[in-house]
Amino acid sequence: MKKIIVLFVGLFSVSSFAQNFELGKVSIDELKEKIHLADSSASAAVLYKTGKNYFELNSEGYFILVSEIEQRVKIYKKEGYEYATVEVPYYTGGKLVRLYFDKAVTYNLVGDKIEKTKLKSDGEFTEKVNENYSIKKIALPNVKEGSVIEYKYTLKTPYYMAFPDFNFQTSIPVNKVQLTVEIPQYFTYRRFLKGYAPINMEAETVVKNRVNNYNDSRIVFKGEEIKALKEESHVNNIDNYTSILQYELAATNFPNSVVENFSTDWESVAKTIYDDKNFGNELNYKSYFEKDLDPLLKSTLKREDRINLIFNYVKSRMNWNEKNSYYCNVGVKKAYNEKVGNVAEINLMLTAMLRYANIKANPVLVSTQANGIAYYPNRTAYNYVICAIEQENGEYILLDATSKNSLPDILPLRNLNWVGRMIRENKTSKEIDLMPKMISRELINVMAQIDAEGKITGKARDQYFDYNACAFRDYYLKMSRDSYLEMIEKRYNGVEIGEYTTNNDKDLEKPMIETYDFTHTNMVERIGGKIYFSPMLYFAKVENPFKQEKREFPVDFPFPYQDKYTFSITIPDGYEIESLPKALSVVMEENLGSFKFNISSVGKTIQVMATIDVNSSHFSPNYYPTLKDFYKAMIEKQNEKVVLKKV
């Protein structure tokens, strides 16, 4: 009896939802709506989105996966016009795949009547991305503020190892969304629902496919009033937290056939990749580098020296073509001779050389930050490979030779994406933590003078260590000097940079140092004969990056860090100190971070020391209130004023 009740409720809910949405039935109320009721800042909103995945048999009796999407979008502002251009990528590298749009219409309210403008042929086109993928695009016509657009597209494909990802959440609010999935009895799929939006999954039911005379399992997923997924501070890839449903084929069991299993685990994925000739075979070649490496290796016997020698040799010889892959394209031999290669060619070459020097080195599969987190076992979860050296104590040294500025255990920031998977020579694999544990420091020393007119002049010296140094060299040293200084002047509004020098640009074992003279003319307030200024000058943070009342997904910092500031500020003649901010020490729970502020004066000089420690690179949403309050207290203290009065 309980099962019948659940089934009845599910069917009733589906029917109720369907009554609310039908293409072509746009209402005057929808067209009159000026702002989104739950999010007045929204430039557009998805009023309804329905999807359906099901199978049909083609004329030859083979299964075809059909994915249908119907969507209605309200445009509130000009910034929302971009949602009237729809792009759908699809595979075109093999058997025939069909993707087509229909029922694409723009609705506007003219007087008290609804005006319909249908999509014409010149508003639809196909763009070939590469030999395997294309994008079908439509640009809906006559779009204005207040328009409602809707469309449908259908994808028919013989490739059903995975369903197209279904997004329940987007960068604009979604009022109602529903996906129905119907799978024939011959298929078993694994499903993965990620994200933080509340999505309800109704009880699975079995229905008779009357056309083809087999049973389908049916599941309906629904969501309502889903908030826009907006970019927030300290998120390395917002797509990691988008609510998406993914299906992957686990097994087939066709009549008169044995069960065929496709379901896999990370061990199987790693082995499959290693067995590919463009991966594992490339690790076996050594003749191309022996004559160059042998003379170098004869000069040193220490293990650590051999590691550094080979790592630096590959970095100095090879140039990354900025192509990501764990598979070689031209192969390590050709890449070595031409001194340029993709990620796989450079780092598999590095691994092979280390093994040649009797160093226990293995490749590590990585999904870069831009590629997102690898949630479930599949080969496309990875797009990068680095090298790991196994230590006797069970620890690992991680290496990536694509960056000239990387060091052992100092990887390019693109690699810092939770975990990777190391594959040993015997094809076993192990999960490897990619996130840094060390604290990367930045030391800022400032000596400044304030004159009676409120003008501040001085000299700043900034030292960058470890990941800070690597990031600085990777990004800022590549900029022109003028562009970089202009960026600093914009960042610290009002500062003017004078003489500027850097040290240790290429000496990676030492901190990166920049030194410059500065002038600032709008940092000081002069009121009633008194002078007011922040003792941290233009380095004082003024805005809390954590503004939301609550946060549903984690806070990501690139790496744990310590920023340490030291100021020596000379006050103008004719003035004395009336008041100084008080010292402060704030410590987050579980030693996740701290802020310490101390200030003192000797004669005409004010001494300030401030230290910010963030001891973790990843904060779960549970710690968001703590982090928000921590930043609030820190920013308030940094902006308290020193008060000077005339003698």
TrEMBL record:
Keywords: Signal. Residues 1-18 form the signal peptide. InterPro entries: DUF3857. Residues 67-194 form the DUF3857 domain. The keyword Signal applies. It comes from the Bacteria. This is DUF3857 domain-containing protein. It comes from Flavobacterium macacae.
